[in-house]
Each structure stands twice: as structure tokens, then as C-alpha cells.
Amino acid sequence: MILDVIRVTAGIIFLGYASFSDLKTRRVDDKIWVIMGFIGFLILIGQFCSEKMDPVYYLIFIPIMLLFFSCFLETGEKTNLLQGRIKKEIWFPLCVFGIIVFIYLAYRFQVHYYLVVVFILLLFFSFFLEAEEKTDLRKGEINRKIWASLCVFEIIVFIYLVYRFGLDYLLLKLITIPLFMLFVFILYNLRLLFGGADAKALITIALLTPFYPNWTPFLRYFIVKDVWPFPIIVLTNALILSLTIPIAFLIYNASRKDFHFPLSFLGYKMDIDSVEKKFVWPLEKVKNEKIVKVFLPKKDENTKEEIQRLKAVGAKRIWVTSKIPFMLPLSAGFITSFLAGDIMFRIVRMIWGI
């Protein structure tokens, strides 16, 4: 109970600060995630000590922490941890050591060798291959879509093998931490998560809150407690809460008597002279000397040039959509996961009356 309070308090503080920073500058310092993740690591150690766990379980933290730090470190010729760089000759032996530790744990808990091979491949993909636009194995680079596809396949196989051969219960719960981290890597490399800060936040949440909270009033609101990883609940809650944004846009536009379907759900009108000073994307552009509406603006377009073209054809007020950082619903999803459980499960209960 006390550890749950510490976890949710730390999460609210760090995610709240990250949300404020992302909203104001669209940047979040990596130090926030490193400190938050280190706090999560210390809490896990404290939990293991208080529950007098077998010391061998502590070894799983080595590959977990290596995977966590791989998000923030780039290999290079020199080590400068403040700049997020580590020498290749240091990083690669550490990763090899992490894999060796997992092999020992597999031997210690008599894990089926199929599971061992699959998980080692997942660690190998994460530690030694960088997801890039093109594949060059000599440089340790692989196309991000190929990398993501391989990882998805390996995770599916791993889940099947766990179902088929079983696994030590506590070891399984701990392995869900790196598996969720890999899941976030996949979402990011498939561009399903656009912000690097969002991906790092989810990875850090997996380390800070890997287990379900123990306060009983809300346990019945988790659909598959202890099987479905708790960070997944945080993510799905965040996605559901983000659906309130179009409703907020509609209410705001209705108060100003601005209506256009579907733009009233996607953004709002703004004086064209203010657009470049705000974190927004135009929902209008010039095509064949005429102003046309855009429902899905391209994030890599030159906004400044587009605004000049709109001004040239006489536009005064245009529809725009805010660059709302996903960090905001993610922070809200984190809080609601502790206070209300699985929102999706609550919705299902209401619909089906269960």
C-alpha cells in the first residue's frame, strides 16, 4: 500500500512536470525519465526486500535496466553520460552480460529452451540493432519496419510459448516489464507514437508501476488483473481520455458560433497572423489558387510557406488544430488507472451489464 502511494505520487509529479514542459516548449528533458525510472528501480528493490524474495530474482533487473537505458544512450567513440553517449567497447559487453544473466535465470528456473531462444533474440534486436530508414547490418542498422515486424513476431511466439510450457509466476510478471518496453519501441518505430517523449514516458511507467495497485476498492475494475500488464491499462486509459479532445473542440467552437463538419471536432479558427506564434497546424491550404480544407495535415510541411500562400489569396481567419502533446492524456491515464482502474472494462460492464 505504501509503495503504491509512493509510485503514484512520483508518477504524478514527474508526468505533471513533463506535461507542463511538453505543453510549453514541446520538449521534455531525458533527465526526467532517467530519474523517474531510477526511482521505480529503487522501489522495486525495496519491494523485493520487504517481501524477502529469493535473491536470484534480483538478477532480472540487469537486462531490464540495460533495456531501459538503451532508450537514452547512443553508442559512440567516447563516453559522456551527461550527453547520453557511451563507448561501444563498454556498451556491447554490458549487453552481452545482460543476455548471459537471462540465460542463467532460465537455467535456474528451468525455463523451456524455446522461450530462452525467443527472449534472447528480442534482447539481441534491442541491444545490437538500431532501427533506421535503411538496412545496413555492418553498421548494426535495420529498417524500422523490418525490425518492428521481427519483434512483433517474436513477442507473439513468446506469449504462445509461455501459454504452452508455463513460466515461474513472479519471473513472468517481471519479464512483462521488458516486453512492454519492446512493445513501446515497436509503436514508436511504426510511427504509432509520434513523440519520443511519449515513448520514453511509457517505458519509464513500465519500470515505475509494473504491478497492479493493491488497494482493494478498485481491484474489481481490472479485467484481467496480473495477466494484462498494468502499463497497458495506463496506455488504453490515455487513448480513451484523448477522445474527449474532439468534444472539447466542438464545445469551444459552438461557444464562438464557428461550425464546420468535421473541422469543428478537429480544431478551431484563429487569426492568420497568430498562427506562426502558436503550436498549431493549419487545416486550410492553397490549391489551384483556391483555399481548401485539410482534415489530416502533414506534420513535415512548411507551415510558414503555407501561411504566406494563404495570406496572398486574402485569408484572414483560418481553421487550425493544436499540436496537443499525448503527454497530457497519458498523465491523466496514469492517474485514472490508480483511481478508477480499467476504463475500457468499466465501459464494457455498463454496456453488457456485467
SSE-based structural type: mainly alpha
Roughly what fraction of the amino acids lie in strands? 5-15%
Biggest sheet strand line-up? 5-9-6
Instruction: Provide the number of structural domains.
Output: 2
**Helix count from the secondary structure assignment:** 14
| Rg calculated over all Cα atoms | 23 Å
Question: How does the SSE layout of this entry go?
Answer:
Layout (H helix, E strand, L loop, with lengths): L1 H24 L4 H21 L10 H9 L4 E3 L8 E3 H21 L4 H16 L1 E3 L8 E3 H22 L3 H21 L6 H13 L21 H13 L1 H12 L7 H4 L1 E4 L8 E3 L1 E4 L2 E4 L9 H10 L4 E6 L4 H13 L3 H10 L2
Parallel strand pairs: 1-2, 3-4
Antiparallel strand pairs: 5-9, 6-9, 7-8
What does this structure look like?
This protein is mainly alpha-helical and 354 residues long. It folds into two domains: 2-211; 217-354, no CATH class. The protein contains 14 helices and nine strands. The strands form four sheets. It has a three-stranded antiparallel β-sheet. It has a two-stranded parallel ribbon with strand order 1-2. A two-stranded parallel sheet has the order 3-4. A hairpin with a 2-residue loop joins strand 7 (284-287) and strand 8. Helix 1 packs antiparallel against helix 13, helix 3 (61-69) runs parallel beside helix 7 and helix 5 runs antiparallel to helix 6 (144-165). The two termini are 28 Å apart. 31% of the residues are buried. The mean pLDDT is 78.
Notable features of this structure?
single chain; 354 residues; mainly alpha; 2 domains; three-stranded antiparallel β-sheet; two-stranded parallel ribbon; 9% strand
